[in-house]
Amino acid sequence: MADVIVQLDRTLVRNRVAGGKAAQRALGATLGFSLAGTTLLLALLEIPPAARRDLVCLALGLWLIGWMVAPSFTGGPELTGQFFRLHPVRRSTLTRGLLAAACTGLPAMVALAAFATIVVAAIPLGPGAVLVSVPATLLSVLVVIVAARLTAIWFAAVSRSRVGAAISSVVTAAIIVVAQHSWILLIAIMVHAETGLPGGLGTALAVLPSSWGLLAVDAAGGGEWGLALALLGALAALGVLLYLWWTRVVTAAPLRASVVRAPRRATASPVSALRKELLGWRRDSLRLQDVVLPVAYALGTTALPLVIGFGGLLPFTGVALVLLGVATSCNLYGASGTSLWMLLLAPGALREDVRGRQLAWLVVFGGLGAAFTAAGCLLHPDPALVPWAVCSFLALLGASSGLVVLLSVYALVPVADPHTTKHSPAGHSDLTGPGFVAIAAALVLAAPTVGLLAAATLAGDGWSRWGPVASACATAVLAPWVLGRAAIVRLSQRGPELMHTMRSGTTDDAADAETDESGIGTDATAERDRVSRVSGFESMRPAESAAFWTLFIAAILAAVPQGLVAAVHLLADSGITGWFVALSLPEDLQLPAAVAFILLGLLLAAGAARIFAHARARVE
Amino acid sequence: MTPTPRAADDATPALLVSGLRRAFGDTTAVDGVDLVVEPGSFTGLLGPNGAGKSTLIACTVGLDRPDAGSSKVFGLDVWRQPLDARRLLGVLPDNLALPEHLSGSELLGYWGRLHGMAPATVGSRANDLLRLLELDGSASRTLVRDYSTGMRKKIGIAVALLHAPRVLVLDEPFEAVDPLSAIAIRGILEQFVGAGGSVVMSSHSMLLVEHLCDAVSIMVGGRIVRTAPMADVLSQGTLEEAFLSAAGRPHDDHDQELSWLT
């Protein structure tokens, strides 16, 4: 039976590759093995052994945590015990088969390559250490795989709850922050390379099971055989315990972890559009995700530079929140699905609904953003940054509260209705493109304010100080009003067409859009959804995919750290040179260089976009 | 829930659909449909799966834009005078989403507010509807997204009724509804028609249509193939026989198929 499960898993992987996911798989493998290779190299660094051990423990700890949280946004492994709930197969057999399938998969190979660092670290310590390192590596990989399977089951159970939504948002935000701030982490590691990590952190790392293998090797190298065997035994015991636990819960049904209930009321009372929206932000786990992601992103983005003692980003926490907030909320109407019908059938309801949505968005993001901006300005009291933080926050907030309704009716992305996807993890439509459009549009609308801020900074004191304030206030008032008005007009003129898009996906030619019988109609819609979701990413050839991601990463590196962040350092006069090319140039060239990096980033992004468009054109 | 008194002009049909056409790509879902619903009448709309009933209903009430034809509620064009027409219409659409994060009573409160109803009226009507449809008590704190299929139907019917419309257009109102609630819904609809309201209802239940409706329209392949008063239909046999002769019999070779299923 176990080998049947392994074969089933193989077939699933093969079908996925045949289904156009080959490029994705190749990219994942490349990325995974590159990271594993980097981890291996850490063991060879010419730094004091204690510092090297800390560094490798840190890297292996990140592997363990990465594996454990990955299911929260990848959705976990395709083949799970869930599928066998109704089959007459023993749980122990099932777990054995699933483990065998997991151990032979590509991800397991990547993990094995990464944890082989333990063997590399053992080589200089002698044959005894190498002898210990082999079981240590295998047991570590086993613990990682089984732990990831357990967290996948847990994430599946809470995926529809607010807790699950919040966790997966925080994980996504952490990935974005680390990717964007990797330069800060590099600096921090270089600072600590000589001295090793501060005592507390080192101890905390040693407690993680991912470190036990390396510690066992160290002990064997030092002749402490008892300790080495004890650590190996502990690792094996942990693996067995986790495996037994997995066997217990392998077929667990997804539970509704926490059902949200409305308060009890004696009599029904009118509910305004604003109140309906605010209740949505509080009760709906998908909406909660749209708030938690920007919050975690904003806090991470501005607080992470504190590890190298730079607090100049703190006043901009509110700005970061709004920038990602406009991206996560850019499909406000699409996310409500076909409930649009109520607005189309109630007399004159559109205006109140659009304004209510805008106001609710302002209450949530404006409130949090104002608090973040105020707290940031207090924690990093630099009078030069306050006008920048406050004016750009106000302008972006205004622009965004208009854009969230406008974009969602002009570039509506159909989302499957929640009641039709009750028993599967919430399907996310691809909102990456519209999200970037939203950020770009918000930046364009806030550009006059930022320009006046720059002018005022250059001109020093005088009347020009009030220019950005006036511009920010004008944007904050006019943008929501004008853009909201445009959304109302669009909805009143094209309501039935938007409704049709919502019901049938983006393709209009679908002849089977006739959804007479709920079951049949829903299946047809889902089928079309899937077809229209074969995006440019999936249709890229491996070479195109590599070129796209290279350009994409280079574009972000050029525009964000080398361009924008360098410019912020210049404005804040931080005196940091770091790895910023612009800041290591003569003073006159610094600002032009930062601007040039931003332009270069845009150019590279355009190149990536071209490849994407090309691949997409081929699908269509 | 008593409908507001009718307009003086009794000759105006409650619902007048003429020449309605709606195509999706090469498929014509609704193909030149005419339908007249008199004030105070209860019309049943029958048809096999995929006949175009839901599309017809969506085009009739203004949720989907037809390619041709018009739809009038008491003489008010649904597309030209939408605000006035919508006040007279109560609609139960087919399996569409609702603001899922609201409870039943919050949803009715929201709908009442959208229709500009007085708070006291909203409160008392919503309480009546929730009690009659058994969505009060332990279900009162449940959010719509946690409702069962039958509960979704029932709250949809409550939404259709709350603003006391004069014409009800209902897409399969009895589907998945438990027998007790079905009796309650029947009672509500009969009272509504008795007070002069008009109902159009699509259904797959011959028995229900036969008992409730005084007129029947049979739709096949996007066209209305037969419209008749129920009395006429029943004078010639059962409704099922009328439906089969209009829609065509399914394959008669069931004996050969699934012969292993003994």
Compact overview of the structure:
The complex is a heterodimer of chains A (620) and B (262). Chain A has 620 residues and is an all-alpha fold.
Label this structure with key terms:
heterodimer; A: 620 residues; mainly alpha; 3 domains; globular; B: 262 residues; alpha/beta; Rossmann fold; six-stranded mixed beta sheet; four-stranded antiparallel beta sheet; 9 helices; 10 strands; 35% helix; disordered N terminus
Shape of chain B: globular
The total count of helices of chain A amounts to: 25
Strand content of chain A: under 5%
| Computed Rg of chain B | 19 Å
Q: Which CATH top level class of the domain at 15-97 and 165-247 in chain B fits?
A: Alpha Beta
Structural class of chain B: alpha/beta
Low-confidence stretches of chain B: 1-8
Layout of SSEs?
The complex is a heterodimer of chains A (about 625) and B (about 260).
Chain A (H helix, E strand, L loop, with lengths): L1 H41 L6 H21 L1 H4 L16 H14 L1 H10 L1 H6 L4 H32 L3 H19 L1 H12 L5 H9 L1 H13 L3 H25 L23 H11 L1 H19 L13 H12 L3 H4 L4 H6 L4 H30 L5 H26 L21 H28 L6 H39 L13 H15 L3 H4 L2 H31 L14 H33 L1
Helix pairs in contact in A: 1-4, 1-5, 2-7, 2-11, 4-12, 5-7, 7-8, 7-11, 7-12, 8-14, 11-12, 13-14, 13-18, 14-15, 15-18, 15-19, 15-20, 18-19, 18-21, 19-20, 19-21, 20-21, 24-25
Chain B lengths: L14 E10 L2 E11 L4 E5 L6 H9 L6 E6 L2 E2 L4 H7 E4 L11 H11 L4 H14 L16 H14 L4 E5 L7 H16 L3 E5 L3 H7 L2 E6 L2 E7 H6 L3 H9 L15
Parallel strand pairs in B: 3-8, 3-9, 6-7, 7-8
Antiparallel strand pairs in B: 1-2, 1-4, 4-5, 9-10
Describe the overall structure.
The complex is a heterodimer of chains A (620) and B (262). Chain A is mainly alpha-helical and 620 residues long. Chain A has three domains: 2-249, no CATH class; 273-533, no CATH class; 534-620. Chain A is built from 25 helices and no strands. Chain A has helices spanning 2-42, 49-69, 71-74, 91-104, 106-115, 117-122, 127-158, 162-180, 182-193, 199-207, 209-221, 225-249, 273-283, 285-303, 317-328, 332-335, 340-345, 350-379, 385-410, 432-459, 466-504, 518-532, 536-539, 542-572, 587-619. The longest helix of chain A has 41 residues, at 2-42. The radius of gyration of chain A is 27 Å and the shape is globular. In chain A, 44% of the residues are buried. The model of chain A is unreliable at 422-427 and 506-533 (pLDDT under 50). Chain B has 262 residues and is an alpha/beta fold. Chain B has a domain at 15-97 and 165-247: P-loop containing nucleotide triphosphate hydrolases (Rossmann fold, 3-Layer(aba) Sandwich), CATH 3.40.50. In chain B, the strands form two sheets. Chain B has a six-stranded mixed β-sheet, sandwiched between helices. A four-stranded antiparallel β-sheet of chain B has the order 2-1-4-5, with helices on one face. In chain B, strand 1 and strand 2 (27-37) form a beta hairpin. The termini of chain B are far apart. At the A-B interface, helix 13, helix 17, helix 21 and helix 22 of A face helix 1, helix 2, helix 3 and helix 4 of B.
